[in-house]
């Protein structure tokens, strides 16, 4: 449950009983330093609401960078909630209900990341002008609903290019009202 207000480089793996890190200041870089944030599991079913019983990294500010590490076994591994201008680069988001969740997040770049074995790999809701490029999204599994590599709902002007989306239980890419 640590609150991050300045640039941070992790120096060890962290195992968290609930929420791990919240970036609460604009312009912060969270460098996971090749380390792993491990959570308590994905928790109870909350569809259609986001699974927020445990969040690996929550971002609410502007121009935040998350890079270079692994986030696994949370309700939501990485949650950008009304964030703007964020960048997720070189991150692995695994074995969570939501791998990466953008809610009302704008001008975000998700690049060179791996999102695998989540119910929803990358979920983009009411989020606009984002770039998803050069990622691998794989093995999203079904949990009624679920099984989507990329799921977008009420999202416009997003660019998804040069990604590898493989092994989704349902659709690799599902767009609703976009």
The gist of it:
The chain is mainly β and 178 residues long. It has no helices and 20 strands.
Helix-strand layout with pairing:
Layout: E1 2-4, E2 8-9, E3 14-15, E4 21-23, E5 29-31, E6 36-38, E7 55-59, E8 65-72, E9 76-81, E10 87-94, E11 98-103, E12 109-111, E13 114-116, E14 120-125, E15 131-133, E16 136-138, E17 148-153, E18 159-161, E19 164-166, E20 173-176
Parallel strand pairs: 1-4, 2-5, 3-6, 4-7, 5-8, 6-8, 7-9, 8-10, 9-11, 10-12, 10-13, 11-14, 12-15, 13-16, 14-17, 15-18, 16-19, 17-20
Descriptive overview:
It contains no helices and 20 strands. It is mostly beta strands and 178 residues long. It starts with a strand and ends with a strand. The strands form two sheets. Strands 2, 3, 5, 6, 8, 10, 12, 13, 15, 16, 18 and 19 form a twelve-stranded parallel β-sheet that branches. The mean pLDDT is 95. The protein is 0% helix and 47% strand. The protein is globular, with a radius of gyration of 14 Å.
